[in-house]
Request: fold
Amino acid sequence: MRILNTMDKMADCFVDGRFSMSAWQKYIGRFSPQLAEKCRQDAMEYDLERDVLPVLNAAAADGEKLRELRDSFDAVTGRFRQHIGKLFAEEPEIDIILYLGLCNGAGWATVLDGRDVALLGIEKIIELGWQDEERMQALVFHEIGHIWHKLSGHLELQASSASEKSLKQLYQEGIAMRCEQILCQNDNLYRRDKGGWLDWCRENLPGIKREYARRVQSGEGTQDFFGDWHSYQGYSDVGYYLGCEFIKYLEKGAPLIQIAKLSLPEVGRAFDAFAREGRAGS
Reply:
């Protein structure tokens, strides 16, 4: 396992206090020959001037949050090996990289240069206010959860229709959330919980299940359940809560390692049962 903190080189991306794309490409190329293109491809749907540059410049200007982020990352990764045994039988061959991206996400489990990697985006972490140690730990563990799913089961399921993609995303994020809780040893941990988020999700779980199931059946999109830039009934990332509760429901009848190996049709049937749970006459 390799851990890389690139914050000491982050200032190289800014010229006269403003972000420079050419300088960023040089910075990112030091750490991976593939990462710059991967970030650019992922950010193609964004408006650079409107969506990306303000976040990058704001992050660079907030010295207090950057210092807190550095300390949190060092603390979390410094004791990471104490937690890894809760999921992995042996230490996995993975990289954990804290880097400045192009608003590609606070966390991103992917493959770079032939290795499984958990990428942690400095600018998005600062924007979301996740630089404290508790949320940083949860974020790292969430991305490690995706990698565990890949190595232990079926992460990359083939999904062609909108319905299948909705089921796949709920399943993937649900398992990663559950891994996050297991590694943190807190079954009630949701780093998105602020402003009454968790209480609202708990109170509205029956309706959330019904609406997600309705969209799966109709083929309507479910993207408003995922991502801080989307919201469902005024709350962002509700799908992470729903997915985790779905996995906890499945754990009543099977261990997580078995749940991680489900096929997409099996996920669909299981979610249908979960969505019906608690309904009158079900």
